[in-house]
Amino acid sequence: MRGYSKRLRFISVLLVTVTLLSLAGPFSFAFDSYDISLGASENALKMDAKMKSALTSSHVISVSRGAPADWAIKELSMADELGLVPSSVSDYFHEATTRLQFAELVINTISVCSGYSSSSLRALASGGKRFNDTSDSNVRACSYLGIIDGYPDGSFKPYASITRQEAAKMLNQMGSVLGFYTNNTPFSFNDIYGLWGEFYIEMISASENPYNDKAVMNGVGGRKFDPNGTYDRQQAVITMYRLAGAVAGFYSGEGASVKVQPGKYVCNLEPNYANPYIEIYSDFTFKFTVNLYEGMGIATGTYRYGGDYLDFRVTSRNFEGFLGDDVDYFSFMPKNTTLIYIGDYIGVTEDGDVFRLNK
To answer: How far apart are CA 220 and CA 189, in angstroms?
Structure first.
């Protein structure tokens, strides 16, 4: 009997989902953070095309008051073209961003990345934490999604300037909700050791937008992050653009360390089993022919990159009675011209089986 094993993916998202269930209480919603990450995955090819188009676009953001710095204009213009600049932060770009404005930026960016409307995301507010100084729907939706906590006294301080450390946490939590993670080596700052936000700062500074190779959030120079410093509007919008690019690249494969080669990948099993194989197509669809002894079945669907992995979603199947005939999601790890299966049994295919490109 071939062994059984299971690999948990997107641990941070699963933890957020568990948190949401505990926060939601009696409320019931049509979607949660898992659906949002799935939406980001399915929307990735559109976002990939938009990111690439924005890079070569001649669009320049229109600003009536408080023009941005010269260095910020290009990325702000790309963010504007992608719909990432709400009116509350569309001028006076040198002013500090408030916590309320940053919450609006968060919900707006999640909407653009996932394909869910901002209004549907704000509807999650009824399941979020009740703060004693604001009932803003963006803030409470962020709370529901596990992106913000507020302060011990029950306040949110909506009109206070957000600190760089607070922004780093919210950006990191946004990435988790969208299913994004990075394996890049964190940058070492010499002024964050022991801070509550140390982990978030390291992770978000290690995350990159592959479309312009820039970190989602940088330090201020001299290996310093300035965790308690303010974050102006142009910086806030630009980090949203970069995180949106990081998420799109994560799922579309832009910047992936290993790109999968379309073709037929075969797993050679013991003689008493027929060999399963998966056909990978360049349009991000697949056909997986699975087996149990001499019986064969087919699962088809779509796949996306997930960092260093390929994540597959089954949309149709024509077999019954197999182990795993109800599996909707599984993963492969690409290694040159091989794919290593990551997941539960599907037929006699198990975790760790190697599929090789049939040349």
So the answer is: 10
Strands 214-215 and 208-209, by their bridges, are antiparallel
Question: Quick one: which of 35, 250, 10, 305 has its CA closest to 145?
Answer: 35
CA distance 196 to 87: 32
| Whether pLDDT at 150 is above 80 | yes
Q: Which two tokens stand for residue 262?
A: 């379309």
3-class DSSP state for residue 8? coil
CA gap 343, 346 in Å, rounded: 8
Q: Are the CB atoms for 206 and 184 separated by under 8 Å? A: yes
3-state secondary structure of 354: strand
Q: Give the alpha-carbon dihedral of 79, 172, 43, 80, to 10 degrees.
A: -10
Q: Please say whether the beta carbons of 237 and 84 come within 8 A.
A: yes
- Written as six digits, the tokens of 6 are 């299971």
Q: What is the pTM of this model?
A: 0.80
Query: What is the C-alpha to C-alpha distance for residues 132 and 112, in angstroms, rounded to an integer?
Result: 30
What DSSP string runs through 115-164? Answer: ---HHHHHGGGGGS---SS---HHHHHHHHTTS----TTS---TTSBPBH
The pLDDT tens digits of the residues spanning 260-299 come to 899 999 998 766 667 889 999 988 899 999 876 556 788 8
Give the DSSP letter of residue 237.
Answer: H
Token pair in block for residue 138: 């963006």
Beta bridge partners of 357: 265
